[in-house]
Amino acid sequence: MSSRGDILLTQPQDFIQGFGRGNVLLHELAHAFDDRRYGMQNPAVQEAFEQARREGLYQDGEWTPYAVTNAREYFAELSSAYFLRMTAPPLDRARLRRLDPAGYAAIEAAWAGAAPPDPQVGGHTGP
Prior knowledge:
The structure is a single chain. By secondary structure, the protein is mainly α. The protein has one domain (about 10-110). It contains 6 helices and no strands. Helix 3 packs across helix 4 and helix 3 packs antiparallel against helix 6 (about 100-110).
């Protein structure tokens, strides 16, 4: 996403395929949503991000997932896991719920009313 908030799709297939790490289009749209709805200043997301960093929830040996770069990337990466599936932790909604309950709650609340049915439960997970 640019500093103006634009999402530029020069190679749409790359955004859909995700460069091997998840759906980049959803990730970038999550940034746009976060910017428009919260000005990228959602206190619940910031608090959950800081807690996840303190607790080392996303650390896996020598590799540091993109989710712990900053609160904005945390929101976009966790949104991708919440709605679809990723190749890096937390992978999907069920694992997000188990691995990072505070992050799960922050993402669920941020997207309230926009969540699709949880495929593992078969019902709507939003309010």
